[in-house]
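User: For a benchmark we're assembling, each entry needs the component sequences followed by a predicted structure for the full assembly. Here are entry 17's components. Please fill in the structure.
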Amino acid sequence: MLIKVTSVANSGLETMKVDVEVNLASRGLPGFDIVGLPDKAVDESRERVRAAISSSKIDFPQKKITVNLAPADIPKEGSFYDLPIATGILAGQTGCKVPDDSLFFGELSLDGSLRHTKGALLLALFAREAGFKNIFVPKDSANEAAIIRGVKVYPVENLSQLILHLLDRECIIPAIYKEKKEDLRGEPVEFDMKEILGQEQAKRAMEIAAAGGHNILMVGSPGTGKTMLARALPGILPPLNEKESLEVTKIHSAAGNIPPGGALITIRQFRSPHHTTSQVGLIGGGTRPHPGEISLAHRGVLFLDEFNEFPRSVLEALRQPLEDGYLTIARSRERVKYPARFMLVASANPCPCGYLNHPKKACICSFRTIKKYQKRVSGPIMDRIDLHVDVPPVDVNDLSENQKASEFLETSEAIRNRVIQAWQIQKERFKQEPIYVNAEMKNSHIKKYCPLKKEVEQLLQQAGVKFQLSARSYLKMIKIARTIADLEKAPDVDIPHMAEALQYRPKVYGETV
Amino acid sequence: MEKQFNLETGKIGENFAKEYLKKKGYNIIEQNYRSKFAEIDLVAKDKKELVFVEVRTKRGEMFGTPEETLNKRKLRKLWLNARGYTSRIKWSGPYRIDAVCIVLKTDNTLERLNHYASIV
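Assistant: Structure for entry 17:
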């Protein structure tokens, strides 16, 4: 007897249909084999399925069972083939019908219940695209799948319930999407901008970065508040819009980061990988390419603390995704494209001891060690960072005074409102384009949307000659000036905007300003 | 003592298997065929097909099922024996190898009997 159950196979963020063919042969010794390039997790599914069926008080058929995952030449990965395989066997045993407009997906527990399985959102998206009407997913993953409208999502609690449903004896009620407001993915906002004393210029730079989605590098001595500033950044970022939410949730669904019962991610991600993170961990990769930190930070913030401590090879790998906003990982078996449009926030010390240019403390580093330290981050990477900011040390005397004044400092909330307004202006400007913020502008966009007045262009040209700006920095200055103008709701870029933008140009540390 | 006991169990099982196959319309040709190399429990004829039957008997399933005792090595042996037999009697028609797995109760009556066709 041959039974066909439909499921899927994932490769990166792409999904394809897989037919799970279950053959129950009465000739031959009883056995259970899975063919069609299963990986270890799929092969072990035999044991889970066997135990789950017996636990559901159904006799495991004493027949020679062959399961084929077609197309047979594509490697199958993951634990979610448990449910389609078990369904196929049970359909053979109980005679229930398997609807062919349905997809089955889920990992079995030995007691016959279904566990939360990663990738439910990708499955639902595929079902809608490919015209499947129903999907059967574990109960814990049902909310995640129900984000997609137009597909009936059946939350399955255990195997016996599913069989009774397929036999038309009981009915599983399709899940309805429940929004979750408190679903804070990533790290919660630790600091309010109000708590950071002094550093008004750095805060301003943060605001500009948040408003235009610009990359930012903060350089300063230890203890000046670089990390605090970065951790306060999520608090001034606008929430994700609907389209962005789906993109981000897709990546996290594929990576298995969504908790049971999880919903759409609406908050911008803040990822801060440690500087010992490997290249594959940061960029993504592996024999079956997995998304890295940069993809998990998609439409959010990637914070690299101690920027100079990252191995050079890891940082160099950031070059292409920083420009393109996505990255293609090619391995011998497959090619995967992951989006990676993130805001890079980096912090570094100016020299190994950390006190170069410190007004009070002396730097003990030799010229050579400073050069060596700064050389760890290459010019091309520095050139790709829009805003370069000095975070000077705060005087202790000022600190106690500022403590009193901190009540009058601006809260993250107030800054965030300005940022949201700037985002709205940009959204209006780029409504014909596939981009959201100024930082994403390509040369053609700059030409089209940021015509400079004569005097502004003159200023930029003079600065370009004096500071030896590269062509890329030159264009970046225009983008930053545009963002500053947007923050002020100015229709055109004016001289003050450009003058401020020029303060954030790439600098050589130790350079006398 | 022990060995004798197992042999007896096997004999009882083989007789049960023989009765079962006869009832199914098989023609039993040989029981306990032995040669220098081979030992075949039952040779029967199912219509035009020659059937070699391996009978596995156990007393209770406490220490494993009879099915479990059919490992790769034994299956290979069955296949070789069957080939030897067919060439000896110059059989050119179809043939297959079956297994009959029997579990006995303590009073030597049948608890279950399963017939698996074409196991190699």
